[in-house]
Design a protein that fits this description.
Length: about 260
């Protein structure tokens, strides 16, 4: 029985010995499972980190877009403000220019009206300087006679081209200074055009001849007065012309009003 008890104990001990590796294996397996679970848990938690970073990145992108939008809006507002300021400055400049132009135009009109009034007064004085016999003439005939004398005065200068002022005054029974004043008045009325030289002569230059002089200067550039004078025969005709042809003389003799002193 003692031997049998040893056998039994031996068998139980052997079984216990056999069970211990299993327990160790079970413990190791349990430990492995815990580690695996921990690792698995860690792997399950890892996606949370990128997810948070993604949200943060999206939030940052939204903030960046909003900041860019505000910057663009500010730039547009600045451009609009600058454009409005520029338009306002240009509008003010246009108004100032238009006001200046109106002022100059008004001054020119006032000056022209004053010159025309002075020319009209001078013309009335000038007509009275001619010898007109009032006996047997009506006011209309006197007016017609003055107009005829004015026409003759202008035509005489145009035909003579270069006329001494003293000779012109003697031709029409006027003082030399009065003759000069009449020429200046007629120039202001665009009835005559020309120059007075320092020798007491008036040189009639037609509009066409003045244009020829201007064309000559444009063609040759800057030219001196002496050069222009030496070449003036190219574009200014200084030869006197007959005062009247036969038809004109016959017509003037027939139409001369009574009481008006005939021209020599």
């Amino acid at each position: 029985s003692l031997q049998g008890e040893r056998v039994l104990r031996g068998g139980a001990a052997a079984r216990r010995m056999r069970r211990r590796p299993a327990a160790a294996s079970s413990s190791a397996a349990s430990t492995s499972r815990d580690v695996a679970e921990d690792e698995s848990g860690s792997e399950e938690e890892d996606p949370n980190v990128p997810k948070g970073s993604k949200k943060e990145r999206k939030r940052q992108e939204r903030e960046d877009r909003e900041a860019q939008r505000q910057a663009n809006e500010a730039a547009r507002n600045s451009r609009r403000t600058n454009q409005d300021r520029y338009e306002e400055m240009r509008r003010k400049k246009d108004e100032e220019r238009e006001a200046q132009e109106r002022l100059l135009e008004e001054e020119a009109m006032a000056r022209k009206a004053k010159e025309e009034e002075a020319a009209a007064l001078e013309f009335e004085k000038w007509k009275g300087a001619f010898s007109v016999d009032a006996e047997g003439t009506t006011e209309s005939e006197t007016q017609d006679g003055g107009q005829g004398l004015l026409h003759n005065f202008v035509e005489y200068i145009k035909k003579q081209k270069c006329v001494p002022l003293e000779d012109l005054a003697g031709e029409f029974g006027m003082r030399t200074q009065d003759c000069i004043n009449r020429i200046i008045t007629l120039e202001g009325m665009d009835r005559l055009s020309g120059v007075m030289d320092d020798r007491g002569k008036f040189i009639y230059i037609s509009i066409e001849e003045m244009q020829a002089v201007a064309d000559y200067i444009r063609k040759h550039g800057r030219v001196s007065i002496s050069h222009l004078a030496n070449n003036s025969n190219e574009f200014i005709d200084l030869e006197p012309k007959p005062l009247y042809d036969e038809k004109e003389e016959s017509h003037q003799d027939e139409s001369a009003p009574a009481g008006v002193v005939a021209e020599p």
